[in-house]
Amino acid sequence: MKKQGFIYGSVILAASAVITKLIGAFFRIPLAGLLGGTGMGYFSCAYGIFLPVYAVTAAGLPAAAACITARDIASNGGASIRRIKNTALLLFTAAGLAGMLIIMAAALPFCRYAAHDSAALPSVIMIAPAVLFGCPCAVLRGFCEGRRNMYPTALSQVAEALTKLAAGLCGAYGVTKLFYSDPDLFCRITGTSLRSEELALSYASAAACGGISLSVLAGLVFMIIYDIINRRKPVSEIAGKGTVMSAETVVRELTAIAVPGAVCALVTNITSMIDLATIMNSLETAYDRDPSVFAQYALPRSEIPNFIYGSFSGLAITVFNLVPSVTNMFGRGILPLASEAYGNGDKKALAKCSEDVIFAAGAVSIPCGIGITVLARPILSLLFSDSKAEIIAASPSLSAMGAGIIFLCISAAIFPVFQAAGRQDIPVKLMAAGAAVKAAGNILLVPIPRLNAVGAAISTDISYFVVCTAALILLKRITGCSLKNIFSICGKLFFAGILCGAGAYLSYDMLTERLGGGVSTVVSVCFGAVIYIISTYFEGLFDKSTLKMLISQKN
After folding, report:
1. For 4, what's the count of Cα atoms within 13 Å in the CB-facing half-sphere?
2. Does residue 76 surpass a pLDDT of 80?
């Protein structure tokens, strides 16, 4: 297959990410309505232990497989790519099995002592198999990405999202429907005599988590079928030149990339565990200091921490993660190209990769971050219209995290360049520092009653600002890229983003009484996007050559 250039390949992955997030919204929004703040607390608890383990076993695998494959094609004629794939599958499937067993073994003590809620145990158990299925799937995706073919990854992600929507939502709905329509049958099936709504929410959350495991299995099945269909096709990169690496060499190179990448992903995702470990306890302190702040929720003290945490993680963090999930595709798209540049010793090309990926990430994240800041509550009301109390709890936090979206997106786009340049240690160190800042911020700010969950949002902003600033400084040292050019471009994008946010806010303010909240939000977002596109065009950032680059398959 013809190689795909950075922009073309990134657009494929970004389009896939947008589609999967839209499908995910159709999953997450009704799920929040079914489970409420309490049930989403169980669901988020399962994610709290799942994501760090999944990060260690699977998150670094696509980058490792893609990086070593691209390097082998650039410097060795692609002679070893089949051995790379087969060795990686064996190695990381074993890692996935170990990860699944770790989650299952740690589920009860984690729920009881870390999350302080044993009702989340069924959800944790049901989500554990996703780690096993995700590892070989990640390897096969990374193998294709290393050959600069992004279609299999994109299509498998869509298949995964559709399965999650069908299986997860139907499972959660089925459990809640059974409880309310025939509680006796529900008790017989679950083996309990307690007709508790809290118990029903626990099992409904577990059903949704089971749907996630099935969805990852669906993605793996898709990649296996694709690999079987294309296995007999000739591999154009292999031209009889180069030396086939030994399995030991492949393992050594894979682990050299995957282990730091996994640690970095662990530290990145451990922020969710930091939130879980610190927010709930800190909210209890905040309540004790000033109960009147929390009177608007009309809930007893024992339910307040889980409700606010569930609203924060289930609503605010869900929207927060939408933009990075798209811009991360730019990092994955640049990785093969940057790896080839590093393999060929072309530092100038590596610097250009750095500047290109920052521009792409900034062009998307800056207007989105500013837009979410000014329209946080309308966006949540549009997406989670049935969760009015949860929106009240989550909207201030989401508004405060708009800046963090920008810093996170730019940082995440830079990290693959470090990986391609053989400096896998840098993202690990930076994210570790960011996690420390995040933990300290939560402990200091969340117990303040007037801030409560907003304190966690502010600490998120500060932590990602520290990470982004340090990443840019180190990027210049390693690649020689021009920070002056980067700041100039980002400054223009920021100015256009400010105009975008102002236009969106003013249009919503004028239209909301006439058209209603939902329609006004959609119109305002579209109006802001038009202002942004026009502004960047007149600033010279986007023109006809940019559009040609978007649709071209060439570098």
Report:
1. 25
2. no
